[in-house]
Specification:
- The strands form three sheets. The protein has a seven-stranded parallel beta sheet with strand order 4-9-10-11-12-13-14. It has a four-stranded antiparallel beta sheet with strand order 5-6-7-8, covered by helices on one side. The protein has a three-stranded antiparallel beta sheet with strand order 1-3-2.
- A hairpin with a 4-residue loop joins strand 2 and strand 3.
- The protein is an alpha/beta fold and about 375 residues long.
Length: about 375
């Protein structure tokens, strides 16, 4: 099979010639700068003083082709450009303002985290506050500049699966705009404002997705976006609250993508078990990252209960095995997940979320070599 055929077979629940593997196909399946630098040194590759950054916020990179071919990665990312009218504004070495009006800060060598947003300081926000806000322009040409040409080149000159990476979803963006705790309170105490805020964000995300898929759709194999709706031990919201307030908006966004005929890879960390059936109902085709260390996320159970309707993308433990295990333990982890998830297709293997700085390069190599060997 070609790499593209392998991924699409897995998504359609047909067993490919080997389990597909991903590194850097999405913004949640790539590798941090420090881990990447150590990996290159371990493989005897020349150092890259300025690797291509995927995200300043998470200090992740777009791995180069030497690394991707070394591990026979099956997918390649297609990234949107940045806003031309409102690019990130650098406030200091450790602080910047994004196009949504969110301030991001970091301490020391950590990744950036949102510290303030346009609605964070409003004690009793109103619908008029939303009307007055200068929202990002979904049609900003900077987002789509060269997108079609890049997608066409990937599709016609390679045989990799092309993944259109869309932005974070409405849960994340509303948390950034309003503040994590305050937004959760809004859902219960100020539902009219909360719903209006979500709808504003979803409208922009749909406009961006539609334009991106109009530009590059013929050359895209699947689309990815993410919204963390769970924690280590449970869902972020009560399931009934998710179903009332968030699920209809998630479905609206998923429907927009499906109208272009593209499968959806949806990212949510944590214990999403209680909401997986809901994700299937809104049209999610594959779930990432399959956080196996979280409650109720045993892979054999997930495959048994949802494997006919949902593909799984991820699954190799980053909580303990990759950062602290031995290469032998990593290989056993890979075998376990392949045994649990790959029957009749429906599995793409990679780490649970981005490979972090503390992961030894020997373990990264062990993960992909075991996948390529055992996954056949």
């Amino acid at each position: 099979m070609t790499h593209r055929e392998r991924v699409l077979a897995a998504l359609k629940h047909r067993e490919p010639d080997r389990v597909p593997v991903d590194l850097g196909g999405t913004g949640c399946t790539t590798i941090t700068v420090k881990a990447y630098t150590r990996l290159r040194a371990h493989l005897g590759l020349p150092s890259q003083p300025s690797p291509v950054l995927w995200s300043v916020r998470s200090t992740t990179v777009v791995p180069d082709e030497t690394i991707l071919r070394r591990f026979d990665a099956d997918a390649r990312p297609l990234l949107l450009g940045t806003s031309r009218a409102r690019p990130d504004r650098i406030l200091s070495e450790d602080m910047f303002l994004d196009e949504w009006g969110v301030i991001w800060v970091r301490h020391g060598e950590s990744h950036f985290i949102n510290s303030d947003g346009p609605f964070c300081r409003l004690a009793e926000p109103t619908l008029q506050d939303l009307e007055k806000f200068d929202w990002p322009d979904p049609g900003d040409p900077g987002r789509f500049e060269g997108l079609r040409d890049r997608a066409k080149k990937l599709h016609e000159e390679t045989d990799y699966a092309v993944i259109l990476n869309l932005s974070n979803g409405p849960v994340h963006l509303c948390q950034y705009l309003r503040g994590y705790v305050t937004w959760l309170e809004d859902l219960l105490l100020r539902p009219a404002f909360a719903e209006a805020l979500i709808d504003r964000v979803v409208h922009i995300l749909i406009e961006i997705a539609n334009r991106a898929l109009e530009e590059a759709g013929p050359y895209v194999d699947l689309a990815m976006y993410g919204d963390d709706i769970a924690t280590q031990n449970a869902t972020l919201l009560r399931p009934d609250l998710y179903r009332r307030m968030i699920k209809p908006r998630h479905k609206t966004l998923a429907d927009a993508i499906h109208r272009h005929g593209k499968p959806i890879l949806f990212h949510s960390c944590g214990s999403v078990y209680a909401l997986i059936r809901d994700l299937i109902e809104i049209g999610v085709d594959a779930l990432n990252p399959v956080q196996v260390s979280a409650a109720d996320m045993a892979t054999d159970r997930l495959k048994r209960e949802f494997g006919r309707d949902l593909a799984f993308w991820g699954g190799i433990d980053t909580h303990r095995v990759l950062p602290t295990g031995t290469p032998a333990e990593v290989r056993e982890e890979v075998k376990r997940r392949i045994d649990d998830l790959s029957e009749d297709g429906g599995y793409v293997l990679c780490a649970v979320h981005n490979i972090q700085p503390e992961v030894h390069p020997e373990n990264v190599v062990a993960m992909y070599e075991a996948a390529l060997e055992y996954g056949r």
